[in-house]
Amino acid sequence: ISKELKKIIDATPGYKAVLTRSDDRFILLSNRPKIARQHNADLFVSVHADSFTRKSARGASVFSLSLGGATSTMAKLLADEQNAADLIAGVDLTGRSDVLKQVLGELTMDATMEASGDVQKQVIDSLAPRVKMHNVNMNRAGFAVLKSADMPSILVETGFISNPTEEKNLGSKAYRKKLAKAIFHGINQYFQKNPIPGTKIAAQKNKQIKWVKYKVQAGDTLSGIALKYKITLAQFKAINNLSSNTIRVGQWLKVPEV
Q1: How far, CA to CA in Å, does 212 sit from each of 195, 198, 253, 254?
Q2: ∠ CA 179-184-188 to the nearest 5 degrees?
Q3: Could you report the per-residue pLDDT of 82-113, keeping only the tens digit for each?
Q4: 153: closest CA among 167, 141, 169?
Q5: pTM > 0.85
Q6: Which of 33, 42, 187, 196 would suit a FRET pair with 250, their CA atoms being 20 to 30 Å apart?
Q7: pLDDT tens, 2-59?
Q8: Rounded to whole angstroms, what are the CA distances from 195 to 32, 93, 115, 228, 250?
C-alpha cells in the first residue's frame, strides 16, 4: 500500500514521497521519523494492517498522537539538548532556561498536534465513503512513530488481516490501489487547504487568490488579520515577505479578496 501511495504522490506535481524502507526488513520505530526528518518531510504517514483475536473485527482506522504521548515526548525533548534543537526548528537551546525550553517545546508540539489532527480528519473523510471503517472517530494514541514534535504525523490501519474478507481484500492489488488513492486524496486535501510556503502547491494557490491591500489599524495583529481573512499565518507572512510577526499601524499588507 505504501509503494502504491508513493507512486501516486510522486506522479502528482508538487509532491515527493520517501519510503522508510523499500524491502522486507525491520526498522526501529524510533528511527522511522528520523528518516523523515533527514529528508525535511512536511508529513509522516505510517501505514499498517491491523489484527485481533476475533475474526469479526474489521475496518480501517486513522490515528494521531494522544495528549499523553505528547506529554511524554515533551519530557524526552527537554531532557536532551541536541534532540530539542533538532525538534524546535533547529533553535540552539544550550544554556537556555528550562522555562524557555518548555514554552518553545509546547508551542511546537501544540501546533504539530493540531496539524496532525487536521490531516487525520481529511484522511478519515476520504477513506469513509470508499472502504469499510472500523470507526470514523478522531482516534489518538501514543504510538512511537507518531512522537515527532516538528512534523504532523498520522498512522493508518488499513484493515484487519485477521478478518478473512479483509485479508482477501488486502491481498488484492486493485484494493491496495483503492486504499492508496483514498489516503492520498485526504493528504492532498490537507495540503491544498494548508500549503507549505515556498512549495509548488503554495505558488499555485497564490496565483488563484485575488490579493487586495489592507491598511493595518490600531489593535491589529498579524495572526488576527490572517484569521479574519482565512489564511494560514505562514502563507500570510510569505506573500508579504515578512520575517517576523511584527506589524505597525499604517502598514499596507496584501490580503485575500473576500
Answers
A1: 20, 21, 8, 6
A2: 155
A3: 444 444 444 455 666 666 666 666 666 777 88
A4: 141
A5: no
A6: 196
A7: 999 999 999 999 999 999 998 889 998 888 988 998 898 999 999 999 999 999 999 9
A8: 24, 29, 12, 18, 28
